[in-house]
Amino acid sequence: MSKPTLEIQLKTLPNQPGVYQYFDAEGKILYVGKAKNLKKRVSSYFTKQHDYGKTKVLVKKIASIKHIVVNSETDALLLENNLIKKHQPRYNVMLKDDKSYPWICIKNERFSRVFSTRRVVKDGSEYFGPYTSMKTVSTLLDLIKGLFKLRTCKYDLSNEKINAGKYKVCLEYHLGNCLGPCEGFQTLEDYNEGIKTIREILKGNFKDSLIQFKQQMKHFAEAMQFEEAQIIKEKIEVLENYQAKSTIVNPKISNVDVFSIVSDESYAYVNFLQLSYGSIIRSHTLEIKKKLQEADKDLLELAVIELRQRFHSNSKEIYVPFKINLGEDVKVFVPQLGDKKHILDLSIRNAKYHRLEQLKQVKIVDPDRHANRIMAQMKADLRLKEEPRHIECFDNSNIQGTHPVAACVVFKNGKPSKKDYRHFNIKTVEGPDDFASMEEVVYRRYKRMLDEGSTLPQLIIIDGGKGQLSSALKSLDVLDLRKKIAIIGIAKRLEELFYPDDPIPLYLDKKSETLKIIQQLRNEAHRFGIEHHRNKRSKSALNTELETIPGIGEKTIVELLKEFKSAKRIANAKLDELEDVVGVSRANKIYNYYHK
């Protein structure tokens, strides 16, 4: 469509909540979004200055707009989620999880079977789940099998067929796993009592089941039926054992959904914990691929709707780390302390662990994606104009002004590039002057790179505070590189990051990957500089000592060091050992020098 038509569409949008859809010139859907006010939200795409490249590209591609007006924000959220799943638009977030999950089915039939399945059939049967782990399903089914004797056969156990004697008991009956309803050995009423208890257990309600079993045990004990009482006692122990493993929160916190989010530049991870009768009955983390730098609030709202739909949750209460709008039917709480806060913290911890696992896997399987993510994160954290693919870090090393040296270490794509490391001996500075030394080294490094036509880094890091940074800036000014390369200083004490012309330092989260890489750069520069400084000092000390011996030249010193490895060993060597290396005459000179 032509641009005027698009402008008219924008002017005629209603000031109502709803869902909007962007299409390109070929009629292909690009993006689906929700809004409290359709006109304001959609217009903002065309009037605001967008910093993010993908948003700019999206706006350029929009040829037409469609919208659907709904009654409330909740309806808009639900509709948006359904349309994203149906059309998978290019610029919408990707909910990376479309596999089928296992359920536990209580079959709609006489003498109901209880089994696991991945297919939900609408035949009146009851389905519990879905469960995120088959291990959980197996554990529950083993628990049920240990508590109740249920049939596993697929016979049609109608009253007429049982009375007609159509079936005979199988091996399961003889093994004691089934009470033989197929031959009428167990009544439907007695069987359904077990199914009723199973239903409560699958809902997470162990309390009623325990009360019921304890009453049965007491009844058998009073009737002197101790063997039956012992069987019931063992069932109670099995149930209490299972309950002890699953109950980790306050039993008063019941039928609640807990959601938390952890995100970086490219992905978000939303953890979902479902609580029932004080037990966590489900934990699942959803991975979301960002497309347009979506805010955590928008991502969490979308994920909450998706996860509640997927896992058929009807809880009226949810806990989240910050306020989100899900309509009037659901109560949203942001816990601040106590057991509710503990369970929210547990959810956040689960999301963080999931993210770490994904990052470790990506690092192994797809190192390029890992590097891209780190670079995007550093660009955002350090407020840079471009990704710092090439970083150089400088550090001075001197002890009481002797042998001043400096080191430059280079990281490319977040990893050390050791072949590009450089040492510098300070040439123009007299005495211990770190500021002047930094000025000299930065000038020499980038003067040479400019002369050789080498590729300049995107970021320079100076190990030191404002003074060191100012010295480095003087050299960049002389070379006319001030606006061409980003530069920051890092102060050791509080890990403060200083920027040119900004008196207020930046503090990064102590656990952030960006800070860890900067610390790694700084530590590597320090190590590399100290190593060079030590070598220079020891070489100087060694040369001074050996060169003072009359009649001993550089060639002799090299021969001695090859054999004895150190000046100390030369000093302690026996005369005959020295003679074997350098001959009688020079050996006597060396031996007499050290044994005056």
What does this structure look like?
- The structure is a single chain.
- A hairpin with a 7-residue loop joins strand 5 (103-106) and strand 6 (114-117).
- The chain contains 20 helices and 20 strands.
- It is α+β, with helices and mostly antiparallel strands and 596 residues long.
- The protein is 47% helix and 19% strand.
- The strands form four sheets. Strands 13, 14, 15, 16, 17, 18, 19 and 20 form an eight-stranded mixed β-sheet that branches.
- It has five domains: 6-87, GIY-YIG endonuclease (3-Layer(aba) Sandwich); 103-245, no CATH class; 256-363, Nucleotidyltransferase, domain 5 (2-Layer Sandwich), CATH 3.30.420; 383-530, Nucleotidyltransferase, domain 5, CATH 3.30.420.340; 542-595, DNA polymerase, domain 1 (Orthogonal Bundle).
- It comes from Xanthomarina spongicola.
Distance between the termini: 101 Å
> Which parts are unreliable, with pLDDT below 50 for 5 consecutive residues or more?
none
Largest sheet, strands/sense/barrel: 8 strands, mixed
Question: Which descriptor suits the 3D outline?
Answer: flat
Helix amount: 40-55%
Could you say what the CATH architecture of the largest domain is?
2-Layer Sandwich
CATH hierarchy class name of the largest domain: Alpha Beta
* Class derived from helix and strand content: alpha+beta
Which band does the percent of strand residues land in? Answer: 15-25%
Please indicate the count of domains. Answer: 5
Question: Please, what is the CATH homologous superfamily of the largest domain?
Answer: UvrC, RNAse H endonuclease domain
| Count of helical stretches | 20
Mean pLDDT: 80
Number of β-strand runs = 20
Any idea what the radius of gyration is? 37 Å
CATH topology grouping of the largest domain: Nucleotidyltransferase, domain 5
